[in-house]
Amino acid sequence: MYMKNLFLALAAAATLSVAAANDWENPAVNSINRERARAYSMPLADEKAALTDDLEPATPYRLSLNGDWKISWCGDPALRPLDFWKTDYDDSQWFTIDVPSCVEMRGFGSPGYTNVRYPHAWDPKRDVAHPTIRDRDTDKGNYNPVSSYRRTFRVPAEWKGREVFLRFDGVYSAYYVWVNGQKVGYAEDSKLPSEFNVTKYLQDGDNLLAVEVYRWCDGSYLEDQDMFRFSGIYRDVCLFATPKVRLDDFFVETVPDRPFIDWKLKLRTKVVGGSVPVSATLYDAAFQKVGDVKDGVLVVKKARAWSAEDPYLYTLVMKAGEDVRACRVGFKHVEIVKNEVRFNGKAIKFKGVNRHECSPDNGRTVTMDDMLKDITLFKRFNINTVRTSHYPNHHSWYDLCDRYGVYVIAEANIEGHEPGYGKDGLGLHKEWFKTIRERNVNHVLNYRNHAAIFMWSMGNETGHGDGFRLALKDVRALDATRLRHWERGNADADVDSTMYPSVEWLEKRGKLGNVKDGAMQGEGGGEGFAIGGHTAGKPHIMCEYAHAMGNAIGNFEEYWDVIYTYPALMGGCIWDWVDQAIWKETDRVCPKTGKRERFLAYGGDFDEQPNDGPFCVNGVVDP
Questions:
Q1: What's the pLDDT at 532?
Q2: C-alpha pair distances (Å), 13 with each of 18, 111, 219, 432, 474
Q3: DSSP sequence for 329-340
Q4: Pick the catalytic residue: 25, 340, 411, 544?
Q5: DSSP-based three-state secondary structure for 285
Q6: What is the mean pLDDT of residues 315-329?
Q7: 439 Cβ neighbours under 8 A, 6+ residues apart
Q8: Peptide bond before 610: cis, by omega within 30 degrees of 0?
Q9: Is-contact 179 209, C-beta < 8 A?
Q10: How far is the C-alpha of 427 from the C-alpha of 440, rounded, in Å?
Q11: 460 and 390 in contact (C-beta within 8 Å)?
Q12: Cys-Cys crosslink for 573: which of 352, 388, 534, 611, Cβ 3.0 to 4.6 Å?
């Protein structure tokens, strides 16, 4: 019932915005014909397919569309090929690009790095209520690069009679989709997947897929993270096929019977396309049967709990008619006891980093090898926590954190930094409520079955207001098993949070954590990024600290002496994990290799304006 009311509320919020000329300049339009967000799972051939050590089970019902696509790029939307989606359009003179990739890393347009400033124009008198995409120098609407993509595919004959969905794991930043010359839909939010039911558009033989991608859109006003800016189809694309009656979504909760020996698994499911019973069986890590879920509950005696130190995973296999799905399950419980956060009944100190998805070769596109390299280094150097700064990551990253044991602060794709925290802050303005709420809701629906996630973060560095208060309520209604973090609105969140306090300030906050809870205190304000609104007796985390630029992190030991002294201090996440530098080739040829020499570039090295220079090169490790 809550979900129905929530989506009705989001739909009603859309009417508050005056219609714009373009969908990509209208915060009331975040998608057209997109499927509702759901937990990621692929239909399997049978139950046996689920019982594997592979990170993701093999299935005959998923078809990758990664590979070579045709592309046409232009800087001015008015010059884009308007009828490229037609089946008889001649693309023989177009370039070829590999998908997934960032187009700027393949020679189309230029990467650009900014920290706070938007790469496009910003005028609060105009853009708070009616955001537009205009050139920052000229304030004209003639520079918003558009990448037009085309490719063909064939649907496997074995999929006959099934529903077929098209899935994009990530596209910067807004895009339209056509199949066989028919318009399918539109989507924004570059860091969450979008799925479209394309069954009725398909034909026997070759099918044409056309995608029109805009570098910036109204959603870009909430994607102002401290990072290089890219565009294009930068994550995986696939088709998948389900039975007509399918298990569309599910939510797994694990509840301990004190003292954390026996556990209950609770399962909620959503079937669409018809009415069939759902059965579910739990297997241990050796794929031995543990038991069957009855009436949505399974009691597991002496369950082996999940933690970063012992990331033990069970496998839950679910069946709805002919539809078979699987989900890894970690038994875990996070709670606040007095003034400290406890995980499975034990106090935890979170030794974390902020991690951007970045590759010196591919920009925002990261491979499985890239992710495995990061997670291996985490485990090697005692990093037990990651904040997905400042957006949802590729879905495989959460699988790796589940498997190898890394606590996750999962952050929504929201940062409206340039408008600031005062009267222009986007969280205060009703025109942005729908987008703020929808991005948080979809984030939770996609990833709430992952054991590694212990806290949801509403976003980063955006003006606080009722938009975020509503989002916090939405998140609690969808998932009451995890904590909620929002550094700009501590009074409304479950834990207090601060950026870049001094060691002396942190000790004051530690002492505040020992004070009887209740009364608000003033210890939070007045120094650097630290803000007011901290609560006595409430846990505290440094969502960013120890800015790792140059020879920084020199007083790291002093921070941790204080953290270990006070129970309320949870720990923190270093800014940030890896230098966000990317390779740039020069005109000079190496006499030994015969190849063009290259260097690791940062802001300004691509002659882009505005830029924030080397401020993106502040990682603990090199690229």
A1: 59
A2: 11, 34, 16, 9, 14
A3: E-B--EEEETTE
A4: 544
A5: coil
A6: 98
A7: 189, 192, 222, 412, 413, 414, 459
A8: yes
A9: yes
A10: 13
A11: yes
A12: 352
**Chain-centre distance for alpha carbon 181:** 31
Strands 289-292 and 146-154: unpaired
H-assigned helices in 366-424: 368-380, 395-404
Three-class SS state of 184: strand
Q: Which of 357, 411, 418, 461 is catalytic?
A: 461
Which residue, chain included where needed, has tokens 């830029």? 611
Phi, psi of 582 (to 5 degrees): -130, 150
Distance CA 234, CA 304 (A): 38
Predicted confidence at residue 23, as pLDDT, reads 96
Q: Is the entire prediction scored with pTM above 0.70?
A: yes
* Strands of 519-608, DSSP E: 520-521, 534-535, 540-545, 569-574, 582-589, 596-601
Radius of gyration of the chain (CA): 24
Distance between CA 475 and CA 111 in Å, rounded? 34
First CA to last CA distance, the chain: 47
Provide the 3-class DSSP secondary structure of residue 79.
Answer: helix
Instruction: Please indicate whether residue 25 is annotated as part of the active site.
Output: no
Q: What was the pLDDT predicted at 517?
A: 55
Q: Which two tokens stand for residue 245?
A: 């009656």
pLDDT in tens, 378-399: 999 999 999 999 999 999 999 9
- Is-contact 272 248, C-beta < 8 A? yes
**Paired strand residues for 33:** none
Residue 208 has pLDDT above 90, yes or no: yes
Q: Are 523 and 509 in contact (CB under 8 A)?
A: yes
CA distance 432 to 415: 12
| Cβ within 8 Å of residue 128, ≥6 positions away | 419, 424, 426, 429, 431
Cα(478)–Cα(1) distance, integer angstroms: 11
Among 547, 553, 574, 556, residue whose Cα is nearest residue 385: 574
Q: What whole-number distance in Å separates Cα of residue 180 and Cα of residue 118?
A: 36
Instruction: Count Cα atoms within 13 angstroms, Cβ side, for 587.
Output: 0
Assess whether 188 carries a catalytic annotation.
no
Place of tokens 């001649």: 90
For residues 408 and 397, the answer to whether their CB atoms sit within 8 Å is no
d(CA 245, CA 273): 4
pLDDT, residue 535, reads: 84
Quick check: 163 pLDDT over 60? yes
- Range from 65-69, 498-502, 511-515 that averages highest in pLDDT: 65-69
Q: Which two tokens stand for residue 145?
A: 């690069």
- Burial class of residue 394 in the structure, from the number of CB atoms within 10 Å of its CB (0-12 exposed, 13-18 middle, 19+ buried): buried
The answer for residues whose C-beta is within 8 angstroms of residue 552's C-beta and 6 or more apart is 546, 618
Q: Residue 182: what pLDDT?
A: 98
**Cα–Cα distance, 61 to 45 (Å, whole number):** 8
Bridge-based pairing state of the strands 297-300 and 334-337: unpaired
Among residues 13, 623, 27, which one has the least CA distance to residue 373? 623
Instruction: Give helix 2-14 / helix 433-447 axis angle, nearest 10°.
Output: 150
User: How far is it, in rounded angstroms, from Cα 179 to Cα 199?
Assistant: 10
| Token pair 């034990």 in the structure block, residue | 346
Q: Are β-strands 246-257 and 385-387 bridged in parallel, bridged antiparallel, or unpaired? A: unpaired
Contact 26, 218 (CB under 8 A): yes
